[in-house]
Design a protein that fits this description.
The chain is of the alpha+beta class. The protein has a single domain (2-63), classed as Alpha-Beta Plaits. It has helices at residues 15-19, 45-53, and strands spanning 2-5, 24-26, 33-35, 60-63. The model has no long low-confidence stretch (mean pLDDT 95).
Amino acid sequence: MRVIANVTLCQGHSRCADICPEVFGTDAILGTVVLRLQEIPPSLDEDVMVAVNNCPEGALAVQGE
């Protein structure tokens, strides 16, 4: 699984980073999402899906579920 982040849509709520900090972070200057990992290990699949589904702006998506 891969995560795709649309930083144009991201409003910096940081829900993703709160839910799955192993994969998501926040840019210190722009306040938008940063991906810490491109390829997601299977052990984090569930947390990533929860984070993606909790993005209020719909700025996150997964590829290759």
